[in-house]
C-alpha cells in the first residue's frame, strides 16, 4: 500500500511540474539573449622594448528578444583581449537592467600593461605591417532573468570571438576584417 501511495505522489508531482513548465514556456516564451561584437577601437597602443601598453574599447551589442522577461546584468563581468594566447588587456562591464524587446550597446574599456616575449613581439610587429592582426575576445557576464516579481538564479553567459583587425593605431577605430563569435548561456 505504501509503495503505491509513494508512486501516486511522485506521479502527481511530475504532472504538476510538467503543467507548470508548459505554462511557463507557453506564457513567457523565453528566448536566449543574443550578443555580437560590433566595433573595436584603439585609444592607445604602445609597444616599447618588450612591454605592451594597451587601451581598447570594444562595443558589444546585447539583444534581449523576450516580450515578458527582462535581463539583469550582475556585478562580476569580465572582458579580455588576447593575442597568441597572451592576455593583453581586460576590463569589466556595467551592472544594469535591460528591458524587454531591447537592444543595448555596451561600450567596454579594456586596459593592460604586459611584458611580451620576443617571439610574440615580433609576430605583433609583422601582423601590424601586414594589416591583419588576429585577436581573441573572451567575455563572461553573470545575468539573471527577471519576470514580473521574481528573478532567476545567476546564469553564466560566455562568449568567445576570434577577430582580425586591420590596425591597432592610436585614436582609430579598427576595421574588423573577419569575425567568428560563439556564445553559450549556462542555465
Automatic annotation (TrEMBL):
<dbReference type="GO" id="GO:0005886">
    <property type="term" value="C:plasma membrane"/>
</dbReference>
<protein>
    <recommendedName>
        <fullName>Late embryogenesis abundant protein LEA-2 subgroup domain-containing protein</fullName>
    </recommendedName>
</protein>
<feature type="transmembrane region" description="Helical">
    <location>
        <begin position="7"/>
        <end position="28"/>
    </location>
</feature>
<dbReference type="Pfam" id="PF03168">
    <property type="entry name" value="LEA_2"/>
</dbReference>
<feature type="domain" description="Late embryogenesis abundant protein LEA-2 subgroup">
    <location>
        <begin position="60"/>
        <end position="145"/>
    </location>
</feature>
<dbReference type="GO" id="GO:0098542">
    <property type="term" value="P:defense response to other organism"/>
</dbReference>
<keyword id="KW-1133">Transmembrane helix</keyword>
<dbReference type="InterPro" id="IPR004864">
    <property type="entry name" value="LEA_2"/>
</dbReference>
<keyword id="KW-0812">Transmembrane</keyword>
<dbReference type="InterPro" id="IPR044839">
    <property type="entry name" value="NDR1-like"/>
</dbReference>
<keyword id="KW-0472">Membrane</keyword>
Amino acid at each position: 500500500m505504501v509503495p503505491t501511495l509513494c508512486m501516486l505522489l511522485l506521479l502527481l508531482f511530475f504532472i504538476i511540474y510538467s503543467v507548470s513548465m508548459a505554462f511557463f514556456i507557453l506564457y513567457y516564451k523565453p528566448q536566449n539573449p543574443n550578443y555580437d561584437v560590433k566595433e573595436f577601437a584603439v585609444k592607445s597602443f604602445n609597444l616599447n622594448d618588450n612591454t605592451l601598453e594597451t587601451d581598447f574599447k570594444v562595443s558589444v551589442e546585447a539583444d534581449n528578444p523576450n516580450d515578458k522577461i527582462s535581463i539583469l546584468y550582475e556585478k562580476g563581468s569580465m572582458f579580455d583581449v588576447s593575442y597568441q594566447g597572451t592576455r593583453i588587456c581586460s576590463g569589466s562591464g556595467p551592472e544594469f537592467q535591460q528591458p524587454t524587446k531591447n537592444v543595448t550597446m555596451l561600450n567596454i574599456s579594456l586596459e593592460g600593461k604586459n611584458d611580451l616575449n620576443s617571439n610574440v613581439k615580433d609576430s605583433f610587429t609583422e601582423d601590424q605591417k601586414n594589416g591583419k592582426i588576429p585577436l581573441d575576445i573572451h567575455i563572461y557576464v553573470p545575468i539573471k532573468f527577471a519576470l514580473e516579481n521574481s528573478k532567476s538564479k545567476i546564469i553564466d553567459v560566455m562568449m568567445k570571438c576570434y577577430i582580425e583587425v586591420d590596425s591597432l593605431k592610436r585614436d582609430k577605430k579598427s576595421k574588423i576584417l573577419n569575425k567568428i563569435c560563439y556564445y553559450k548561456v549556462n542555465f
